[in-house]
């Protein structure tokens, strides 16, 4: 009786495994009753932030967009031309699959006015470098993109802002200004106020970083290292 029971159990198990094997023969693009969704991926080509002179033609470096390894088309939110007015323009690149799922990346293009681009001070000055905010022990890095135009990483001098950049301009002399700008980094419209640049040595930057309510209204002081 025990042998017969064992034999019957083995037959039942064999039948069960046989049925399960057939369950893996799914229709293409499905797993059981569920549809396989391939999500899009997108990444810009070239630099995250770039600057061009007002009136110049702009050739976008583009982006790479794929779905399941295959290249797909993408769309952009903004078109820059030779007639685009001076300003700071975030461009969003979006790829979407057939199910409506999207992936995005972005670039910031600064169209620099001819007034700034041709200013002797803006050309001669180079405020690039690392600046320390002693109040937090956190640094902010300035990179010159074009005459009088800088990408300033971590303008708030806070640990949460590392890697996030804004645009700051030097129109003449040592005056600086953080214009109102829509920032994909901070996900908000930000600006500066009470901005000053003292060449030192050491050089010192002060401003209020306006990104309410995250950064408050205190004056932030940075000293070049």
Q: Can you describe this structure?
A:
- The structure is a single chain.
- The chain has 2 domains: 40-112, Immunoglobulins (Immunoglobulin-like, Sandwich), CATH 2.60.40.10; 114-224.
- It has an 8-stranded antiparallel beta sheet with strand order 13-12-11-10-17-16-15-14, with no helix packed on it.
- The protein has helices spanning 2-23, 114-117, 120-124; strands at 30-31, 34-35, 40-44, 49-53, 63-67, 70-71, 75-76, 87-96, 102-112, 129-133, 138-146, 149-153, 165-169, 181-183, 188-198, 204-210, 219-224.
- It is mostly beta strands and 225 residues long.
- A hairpin with a 4-residue loop joins strand 10 (129-133) and strand 11 (138-146).
- The termini are far apart.
- The longest helix is centred in the first third of the chain and has 22 residues, at 2-23.
- The chain contains 3 helices and 17 strands.
Provide keyphrases for this structure.
single chain; 225 residues; mainly beta; Immunoglobulin-like; 3 helices; globular
Distance between the termini: 88 Å
Main sheet: strands, sense, barrel: 8 strands, antiparallel
Q: Structural class of the secondary structure composition?
A: mainly beta
Nearest-integer average pLDDT = 89
Morphology call? globular
Task: Please count the helical segments.
Answer: 3
Approximately what portion of the residues adopt beta-strand conformation? 35-45%
Assembly state (oligomeric): single chain
The count of domains is: 2
Low-pLDDT segments, ≥5 res = 1-20
Percent helix among the residues? Answer: 10-25%
Helix/strand order: HEEEEEEEEEHHEEEEEEEE
Number of strands: 17
Q: Please give the order of strands in the largest beta sheet.
A: 13-12-11-10-17-16-15-14
User: What's the gyration radius in Å?
Assistant: 28 Å
């Amino acid at each position: 009786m025990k042998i017969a029971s064992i034999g019957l159990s083995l037959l039942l198990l064999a039948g069960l495994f046989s049925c399960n094997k057939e369950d893996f023969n799914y229709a293409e693009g499905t797993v059981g009753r569920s549809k396989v969704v391939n999500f899009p991926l997108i990444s810009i080509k070239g630099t995250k932030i770039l600057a061009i002179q007002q009136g110049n033609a702009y050739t976008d470096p583009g982006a790479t967009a794929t779905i399941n390894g295959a290249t797909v088309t993408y769309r952009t939110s903004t078109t820059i031309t030779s007639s685009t007015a001076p300003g700071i323009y975030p461009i969003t690149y979006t790829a979407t699959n057939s199910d409506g799922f999207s992936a995005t990346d972005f670039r910031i293009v600064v169209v620099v006015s001819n007034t700034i681009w041709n200013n002797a001070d803006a050309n001669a000055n180079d405020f690039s470098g690392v600046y320390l905010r002693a109040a937090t022990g956190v640094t902010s890095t300035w990179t010159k993109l074009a005459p009088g135009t800088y990408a300033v990483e971590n303008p708030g001098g806070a640990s949460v802002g590392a890697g996030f950049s804004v645009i700051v301009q030097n129109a003449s002399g040592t005056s600086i200004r953080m214009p109102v700008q829509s920032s994909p980094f901070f996900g908000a419209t930000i600006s500066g106020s009470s901005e000053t640049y003292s060449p030192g040595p050491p050089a010192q930057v002060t401003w209020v970083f306006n990104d309410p309510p995250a950064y408050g209204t205190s004056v932030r002081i940075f000293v070049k290292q």
